[in-house]
Specification:
By secondary structure, the protein is an alpha+beta fold. The protein has 3 domains: 91 residues, 2-Layer Sandwich (Pseudouridine synthase), CATH 3.30.2350; 133 residues, 2-Layer Sandwich (Pseudouridine synthase); 71 residues, Roll (Archaeosine Trna-guanine Transglycosylase, Chain: A, domain 4). It contains 9 helices and 19 strands. Strands 1, 2, 3, 4, 7, 10, 11, 12, 13 and 14 form a 10-stranded mixed beta sheet that branches. It has a 5-stranded mixed beta sheet with strand order 15-17-18-19-16. A two-stranded antiparallel sheet has the order 5-6. The chain is globular and about 70 Å long. The mean pLDDT is 89.
């Protein structure tokens, strides 16, 4: 029996989308997928419906590189409103508590160092974290009490950008995987002796995908299925910035795409810039991106005992 053909076209690559306010990340990805008539799609990090900015959308085989983008640093610009705690920790939630305290700019700046580096954070109750197999936000919407455990996150930097009035402050924050800006504002406000939530949130960058390179849904939809739309499709390798890359010949490419290891040869090893022999222990477990001489992605492989062992293979068949 013949294999059922996938719906859509074999479109592969990344789109840096500027997500508009009021659209879920899932809905935005579905619209991009439809515009490119792609067989499959995913994204590298959810943006809340009220948030705007860079949503990195993966199409086709690029979905296999999503974890590498999710592990990268993200940059946000956002506005906090002092004096109110909300159940969602943003402007869309119900008010739980109020405070008359308004922190000064000096007090805010003095507090920032305590919220930079590795800190512990309890995620918002309205988040996608699973509790006994259920999403926390689903449980919260059903009125169930949700208790989430604190977990370590890393904040690379936080800066006070502006204080437009006594009720609001604008920040920029760079953070790693798993950090919630809403929770950061909630905890920061309480440390200042007040309450707070996020009223505006924009992601400026996620890994190699930046605001300046992002295209809006409106502009993308105006392009439709034209060749101009494909100009906004970035290579799969964009997601692998910082991972060592090696070219392989046709025979090795066939072996790798079949899931078989190949030998790490001395010339390849030399291009990795290592100062020891191929069997050296310092490179065991290292991830390498492999492509053909023409730049076509082949596989992601791990170095082990003098071999390149593929753990993620790229296939560009027609479905």
């Amino acid at each position: 029996m013949s294999r059922r053909r996938r719906k859509g076209q074999p479109v592969h690559g990344w789109v840096a989308l500027d997500k508009p306010r009021g659209v879920t990340s899932t809905a935005a990805v579905a619209r991009v997928k439809r515009l490119f008539d792609a067989q499959k799609a995913g994204h590298a990090g959810t943006l809340d419906p009220m948030a705007t900015g860079v949503l990195a959308v993966a199409l086709g085989e690029a979905t296999k590189t999503v974890p590498f983008v999710m592990d990268t640093e993200k940059l946000y610009r956002f506005t906090a409103r002092w004096g109110e705690a909300r159940d969602t920790d943003d402007a869309e939630g119900a008010v739980l508590e109020t405070s008359g305290v308004r922190p000064s700019a000096d007090a805010i700046r003095a507090m920032l160092p305590r919220f930079v580096g590795e800190i512990r954070q309890v995620p918002p109750v309205y988040s996608a974290i699973k509790v006994h197999g259920e999403r926390a936000y689903d449980l919260a919407r059903e009125g169930e009490a949700v208790a989430l455990e604190p977990r370590p996150i890393f904040v690379a930097g936080a800066e006070l950008v502006a204080v437009p009035d006594r009720d609001h402050a604008q920040f920029e924050l760079a953070c790693g995987k798993g950090a919630y800006v809403r929770a950061w504002v909630r905890d920061f406000a309480r440390a200042l002796g007040t309450l707070g939530h996020v009223v505006e949130l924009r992601r400026l960058r996620v890994g190699p995908f930046a605001e300046n390179d992002a295209i809006s849904l409106e502009k993308l939809e105006a392009l439709g299925h034209s060749p101009a739309a494909l100009e906004h499709l970035r290579p799969i390798a964009t997601a692998l910035d910082g991972i060592p890359a090696l070219a392989v010949n046709g025979t090795d490419a066939v072996r790798l795409r079949s899931g078989n290891p190949i030998l790490l040869r001395a010339p390849q090893f030399a291009r990795l810039g290592e100062g020891q022999d191929v069997g050296g222990t310092d490179i065991q477990g290292k991830t390498v991106y492999l492509s053909t001489a023409k730049g076509e992605p082949v596989a992601l492989a791990e170095i082990a005992q003098g071999e390149l062992r593929p753990f993620r293979v790229f296939n560009f068949g027609n479905g």
